[in-house]
Specification:
- The structure is a single chain.
- By secondary structure, the protein is an alpha/beta fold.
- 46% of the residues lie in helices and 15% in strands.
- The chain folds into 2 domains: 135 residues, Rossmann fold (3-Layer(aba) Sandwich); 55 residues, Orthogonal Bundle (Arc Repressor Mutant, subunit A), CATH 1.10.10.
- A 5-stranded parallel sheet has the order 2-1-3-4-5, with helices on both faces.
- The longest helix is centred in the last third of the chain and has 15 residues.
- The N and C termini lie far apart (42 Å).
Length: 209
Amino acid sequence: MIRLHIIDDHSIIVDGIRQRLKHLQEEIIIAGSSDTTAHFIQSAPADSFDIIVLDLWLPGLEPLENLEAIRKHFPSKPVVIFTQETNAYWIRVMMEHGASAYVLKNAERREFKETLEKVYLGKVVVPAIAMNHKESEPGNPFSPWKYFLKPSERVIVVQLANGASLKDIATNRFSTVSAIEKTLQKIRAGFGVSTNPELIRVLMELKLI
């Protein structure tokens, strides 16, 4: 029996997971739920659950702060991120900071079940959208990706690809041309190119924009 503790501030999500698992009551159950990590840490005994299912976006704290707080108090308990966020930046951050899996909320019932079973056995399951369903044992590198666009960086390069000047982007971002250029310089270095047109071409080829 795999016991889950769900951390999500929307009861409809918890109810949705319960419905997904309705036919698996002898295999996987929801042992408890919380709407914040603080409430979870304060009220959930470590022996009451096997896996933590954590929403990426919760009010009050940033995603990484939530994950780190949970890992600090329950270092031996695996955490499965359950979210609609597909940005590669968040996948990388969560996996590199100790999440055992990253599952999209629209994942098929079978995928969700199999992921939980693998995590329960101690495996780290890299999401299909990142690694084509490949898995790795704990301690192995998560991904061969060399650079991941943060959401804020993606906004900048999308505007650039759409023909905006650095001045236009700086104005839209309430920033300075110098700050925008420094950000683009870092992104260019990350993708191994020297000019903005090259960067846009590479990002389009990789389907990142």
